[in-house]
Design a protein that fits this description.
The complex is a heterodimer. In chain A, strand 8 and strand 9 form a beta hairpin. Chain A is built from 15 helices and 18 strands. By secondary structure, chain A is of the alpha+beta class. The termini of chain A are far apart. Among the domains of chain A are: about 110 residues, Flavocytochrome C3, Chain A, domain 1 (Alpha-Beta Complex); about 110 residues, Fumarate reductase/succinate dehydrogenase flavoprotein-like, C-terminal domain (Methane Monooxygenase Hydroxylase, Chain G, domain 1, Up-down Bundle), CATH 1.20.58.100. The termini of chain B are far apart. Chain B is elongated and about 60 Å long. Helix content of chain B is about 30%, strand content about 15%. By secondary structure, chain B is an alpha+beta fold. The chains are: A alpha+beta, B alpha+beta. Chains A and B meet through helix 3 and helix 4 of A and helix 1 of B. Bound molecules: flavin-adenine dinucleotide, iron/sulfur cluster (SF4) (2 copies) and FE2/S2 (inorganic) cluster. One iron/sulfur cluster binds next to helix 5, helix 8 and helix 9 of chain B. One iron/sulfur cluster (SF4) binds next to helix 4 and helix 6 of chain B.
Chain lengths: ~550, ~220
């Protein structure tokens, strides 16, 4: 049954910015570390795609302070943030950026020796450090180089399928080795989850293929508590076609430079939603406006609306939007002459596994950091805060996890492992004829329609029904029998986790009878001061609420 | 549109074979990756290939497209195209190749900053990192297209190949790095490169690899 057993002090699941940083810190503290990545190390997550930058209140560009960064973040998050975590984020973000340069990164400089910092939505000072429009790539390279120095073991293309527990504490994980087809048992004294978010639960997303939210389902399965799962950020402007590019980010700079939005009837529809700011309104307002237009049937045949810059001089388009010119000319569209077709795209999960200041979850020996963890961003994330989050909390998770290296290995329940083995490979022996892709499509569609940008009680209940019936149909899925690089098997396993994650999201969204940040309920369109509370979910879909953690900034409207 | 795809599962097939597909895709700007996704999700073809970002940022998806290395996510799909795994790498299955020996060779280069012990404090180290070439070289997405296109690498494994030369150059140009990278490059077969320029042609980032190697 088991093809191989591995042992390590600290097992890091996920090889994005957060996972790499956690591994580095644990290795520096002399723990044995193993990084396990579903795709390629450093190249299968969002980190490598992040363009905009990294928020750190150095105050090089203009007057700024951690306090100001704190306030922006909490206000942006509509007071759902765990303020203890935000304090840590704003205080440590600059130090962690210096670490990155120490590892080999080189962020852009002004004419002086100081870092260049750009303005980003929701920030009251220019605070976002960057390297051109490839900040995440630069970070990832540096992190990879540093992990080479520390000789950290990396196992690529292994999908972790479950976490193992012993007496309520985590003691390892099981994995499907995609390249060899092996089933692995990995024993560890501590596990750091860094699997990123799950925007792939939606059909249109800016995220890479691997981001199916596996970490949420893994943590849930191990009994950990998750929070704010209803909070998903949608980016208003993303590509619609060709299919292979659907959902890819269209930078906000297009609207910044004067791009105009039109519906099929040629109306500049933003006039109806925000006549003053028009296209330059905030992300959530533009996203909802677009959504409404599409729902009313005013979309283009391709299923988006037009974003037009053709009225601008060519020189501006070529000079300031060169990346977009390339991205769209790849798709056969000359944006100097024709409008782009765009629509909103799922971008980021604010919620996730609940952690304390040392990134430990409610399950002993299980740590979480990066997008898979919740609490830092509250109900809405500010651009640039995530890259900082991966570094600040990655380090903390690695540090705390490495302290467990002195413990003993806990015993592994082999019956549980065998059960998991059967669960994983049952798909290759399935009797039915259902294609895993048709089921994934139904899940994505119902989530988009019923648990997406605009939600209602009725829609959410429908989504819950759909999730139930898709789960039933899962029993009829059959994938091809080969063990080696079996993508169908990977996709089926992902789907099973996505169903769990989706259910947590929908149930939380149903419970939150108000609109706040990224969560919009058409049947409860106003923010309700009584709802400055986090929704928690754990085993057996048990929901509860808890007042948000406040340290320095009192919520608006609450006495 | 007709597509021919290299198929090979070393555990099950005696030898590689090709599978032909006829697909009805008329979309403007369709990419090779889009066709592969279509074959798998709509036709259940079960082809093994790598992909992640869909936008030329992660370097996972390089394959041979009509006998030329390229990123599946950025190369336009054409009628009668032939898709094969990247050359100069062992095949794991179908279009997926093993990077193992390349990685091991890379590790031998000690590809990390050989820095002093003094840590930067407060104000960030005033490094003269404005050299444009240095910055550009760091943008390599490690897709290995250039390795798949290098004729010297094909016949002589003593040559480390363009990707690794690029890596060495990245450190050579970094003012913070203290190792003798030039010696390293020579050891890795720098002089074997014929400066034919094939690697430069296929690099999706548009690096002038062969010119930077000579540097
Ligand atoms: C297009 C885009 C642009 C962005 N721009 C910015 C920006 O400018 N500034 C900013 O601050 N944020 C930005 N973000 C958000 C930010 O990039 C992410 O929130 C952050 O990088 C997440 O890092 P992470 O390490 O948590 O996860 P990721 O980097 O996504 O890594 C997740 C890792 O987990 C692995 N994994 C997943 N499931 C499993 C499993 N079951 N087993 C093993 N491994 C698994 C994956 O293979 C991957 O390696 C952007 C996001 C996108 C998509
Ligand atoms: S220029 Fe040198 S490295 Fe590039 S393909 Fe030719 S021989 Fe190979
Ligand atoms: S140098 Fe260019 S072709 Fe070679 S690996 Fe880097 S990006 Fe790819
Ligand atoms: S999928 Fe990332 S480069 Fe092609």
């Amino acid at each position: 049954m088991i093809d191989d057993v591995l042992e390590t002090d600290v097992l890091v699941v996920g090889g994005g910015g957060a996972g790499a940083r956690a591994a580095i810190e644990a290795a520096r503290n002399r723990a044995r570390v193993l990084i396990v990545v579903k795709g390629l190390y450093g190249r299968s997550g969002c980190t490598v795609m992040a363009e905009g930058g990294y928020n750190a209140a150095f105050g090089f560009a203009e007057e700024d302070s951690p306090q100001l960064h704190f306030e922006d973040t909490v206000k942006g998050g509509r007071f759902l943030n765990d303020q203890r975590l935000v304090e840590i984020l704003v205080k440590e973000a600059p130090e962690r950026l210096i670490d990155l340069e120490w590892y080999g990164a080189a962020f852009d400089r002004l004419k002086t020796t100081l870092l260049s910092q750009r303005a980003f939505g929701g920030s009251s000072a220019r605070r976002t450090c960057h390297k051109g429009d490839r900040t995440g790539h630069e970070m990832m390279n540096a992190l990879k180089e540093e992990s080479m120095r520390l000789c950290i073991d990396v196992l690529e293309e292994v999908m972790v399928t479950s976490l193992l527990t012993s007496g309520g504490a985590v003691c390892g994980a099981t994995g499907y080795h995609i390249v060899t087809g092996q089933f692995l048992l990995i024993r560890a004294k501590a596990v750091v989850l860094a699997t990123g978010g799950g925007s792939r639960i939606y059909p249109v997303t800016t995220n890479p293929f691997q981001k199916t939210g596996d970490g949420y389902a893994l943590a849930y399965g191990a009994g950990a508590e998750l929070m704010d799962m209803e909070m998903v950020q949608f980016h208003p402007t993303a590509m619609v076609y060709p299919k292979s590019a659907r959902g890819l980010l269209v930078t906000e700079a297009v609207r910044g430079e004067g791009g105009r939005l039109y519906n099929r009837k040629g109306e500049r529809f933003m006039a109806a939603y925000d006549p003053e700011r028009m296209e330059l309104s905030t992300r959530d307002v533009v996203t909802r406006a677009l959504f409404t237009e599409l729902e009313m049937g005013y979309g283009t045949p391709e299923g988006g609306v037009y974003l037009d810059v053709s009225h601008l001089p060519d020189s501006i388009i070529e000079g300031k939007l060169s990346m977009m010119v390339r991205q769209f000319s790849d798709a056969g569209v000359d944006i100097r002459r024709e409008p782009m077709v765009i629509s909103p795209s799922a971008h980021h999960f604010m919620g996730g596994v609940r952690i304390d200041e040392n990134c430990e979850t409610s399950v002993r020996n299980l740590f979480a950091c990066g997008e898979v963890a919740g609490g830092v961003h509250g109900a809405n994330r500010l651009g640039g805060n995530s890259l900082a989050e991966t570094q600040v909390f990655g380090r903390r998770a690695g540090l705390a996890a490495s302290a467990r290296a002195r413990d003993r290995f806990l015993p592994v329940d082999m019956d549980r492992v065998e059960e998991e083995y059967r669960r994983v490979f049952r798909f290759t022996k399935g009797r039915g004829r259902t294609s895993v892709y048709s089921l994934r499509k139904s899940l994505e569609e119902t989530m988009w329609k019923n648990a997406g940008i605009v939600r209602t009680g009725e829609g959410l209940r429908k989504a819950l029904d759909d999730i139930r019936s898709i789960r039933k149909a899962l029993g009829k899925v059959r994938v091809e029998p080969g063990r080696r690089y079996n993508l169908q098997l990977v996709h089926a396993l992902e789907l099973e986790g996505m169903l769990t994650t989706a259910e947590m999201m929908v149930r939380s969204a149903l419970m939150r009878t108000e609109s706040r940040g990224a969560h919009y309920r058409a049947d409860y369109p106003a923010e309700d001061p009584a709802w400055v509370r986090n929704i928690l979910v754990k085993k057996d879909m048990e929901l509860s609420t808890r007042p948000s953690v406040v340290t320095r900034l009192k919520p608006e409207g609450v006495p | 549109m007709r597509v021919k795809v290299f198929r090979y599962d070393p555990l099950r097939d005696k030898k590689p074979w090709y599978q032909e597909f006829k697909v009805d895709i008329k979309e403007r700007g369709m990419k090779v990756l889009g066709v592969l996704d279509y074959l798998n999700t709509e036709l259940g073809a079960g082809i093994a290939y790598r992909s992640s970002c869909r936008s030329g940022q992660c370097g996972s998806c390089a394959i041979m497209i009509n006998n030329r290395p390229g990123l599946a996510c950025r190369t336009p799909a054409r009628d009668r195209m032939v898709l094969e795994p990247l050359k100069n790498f062992p095949v794991i299955r179908d279009l997926v190749v093993s990077h193992k020996s390349t990685r091991e060779r890379m590790a031998r280069l000690r590809p990390f900053l050989h820095r002093g012990t003094q840590r930067f404090t407060g104000e960030i180290e005033p490094i003269s990192l404005r050299k444009t070439k240095f910055k550009e070289l760091k943008d390599c997405i490690e897709c290995y297209s250039c390795l798949g296109g290098c004729p010297v690498k094909e016949s002589d494994d003593n040559y480390a190949g363009p990707t690794l030369m690029r890596l060495i150059a990245r450190f050579e140009l970094d003012p913070r790095d203290g190792a003798d990278r030039l010696a390293m490059a020579v050891e890795e077969g720098l002089y074997k490169c014929t400066t034919c320029g094939k690697c430069t042609v296929v690099c999706p980032e548009g690096f002038r690899i062969h010119e930077d190697v000579i540097e």
